[in-house]
Design goal:
This protein has helices at about 5-10, 10-25, 40-45, 65-85, 95-105, 130-135, 155-165, 180-190, 205, 245-255, 260-275, 275-300, 325-335, 360-365, 370-385, 390-405; strands at about 25-30, 55, 60, 85-90, 110-115, 140, 165-170, 195-200, 220-225, 235-240, 305, 315, 335-340, 340, 355. It is an alpha/beta fold. It has 2 domains: about 25-35 and about 275-415, Aspartate Aminotransferase, domain 1 (Alpha-Beta Complex), CATH 3.90.1150; about 40-275, Type I PLP-dependent aspartate aminotransferase-like (Major domain) (Aspartate Aminotransferase, domain 2), CATH 3.40.640.10. The strands form 4 sheets. A 7-stranded mixed beta sheet has the order 4-10-9-8-7-5-6, sandwiched between helices. A 4-stranded antiparallel beta sheet has the order 11-12-15-14. Strands 1-13 form a two-stranded parallel ribbon. Bound molecules: pyridoxal-5'-phosphate. Pyridoxal-5'-phosphate binds near residues 96, 200, 201 and 224.
Amino acid sequence: MLRSLAQTDSQVEKILKKETIRQQDTLTLIPSENYPSRAVREAEGSILIDKYAEGYPGKRHYRGCQFVDELEELAIERAKKLFKGEHVNVQPHSGTQANIAVYQALLNPGDTILSLNLSHGGHLSHGNKATLPHTHYRIIHYGVNRDSEMLDYEEIRRIAKEHYPQLIVVGASAYPRTIDFAPWREIADEVEAYLLADVAHIIGLIVAGLHPDPVPYADVVTTTTQKTLRGPRGGVIICQKEYASLIDKAIFPGTQGGPFMHTIAAKAICFKEAAEPQFKEYQAQVISNARELAKTLMEEGFRLVSKGTDNHLLLIDLSSKDITGKEASTILEEAGIVTNRNSIPFDTKPASITSGIRPGTPALTTRGMKEPEMKLIGEWISKILHNPKQGNIRKKIREKVKELCEKFPIYVNSS
Ligand SMILES: *Cc1c(COP(=O)(O)O)cnc(C)c1O
């Protein structure tokens, strides 16, 4: 029992070592990834991993829960303060689980959900064909406006009035612009629908006061903790008091079993960290870095969806270049620049190919990188994507990427 990982399983240990080196030596521009603090990682690997605690503080199905009760109450108190919410559930294992529980809490099978089209920046868990919500509910999508590539409230109102959904979902995985939640509340009220705001990507900006807050407007808010919030992998549900019991029952026993108490400890830590002044500075830098990267790429001749960014990510439209999103992300990785391919609005290519990539700045900002590094990285991306047939360019940039990574170690600036 006391043998280390290296002594117990050299195969897994070797893979972890390789992954550590990969993370250290490459630039992560995937906007949903981040490097949480050492404290968060310690909690994830702590003794709490062995504790069963089905139920909620004071109402557990198992004995021996006095300290995990204290812990979950602490996490809830911190979350309520941080998110300014009336009720918080910290048990969802992920953002997807949080959304499924909200549907389970508020809807009946066959009810209608109105949400953002996946190919316009929505998330799978908002009712994509391949998912469980799609088999249980009627899914209607809205998209972004063809010209502005932004949310078009008149069009969304029109679709809402045509279908009278029971639930409207506002929130995105690939939307580079600010979302104003007040008009969503109005539209939801006009058709008497519940309003769910899924702010998985932008929650860090919201708690730092750098993006409008959905909590005063939405009936329920869901988020992840691993993206801009820089915590453990997991989900959170914030709701008005009147839905508290429905939401809690929909998580347990509705859609989950025992909570991950080690992750709840890590969530409590990340809520504390997110309330500190340095977190606000970090989020402001995330946004400045995204702006600088956007500016550089536009100067280099790339078209960005919606012509820029207000938040932590950008969507590059490659359709006028001689390269697909899939090819672009593949050759960028050869140079140590890790991104993901992404559909752009009205994409003519399938999701497995796409015409876009979606770089974001949260992870690089945690490493301590600022505007000068963003400019450099933007120029490297340009050079690589404008010369896809020249492998030697990628090789040269790969060396420069390594040098830059050495100056900004992972898991130093975040702890
Ligand atoms: C990432 C994301 C989720 C889901 O998160 P998981 O933790 O991966 O399940 C849900 N909604 C949106 C908008 C997201 O971007």
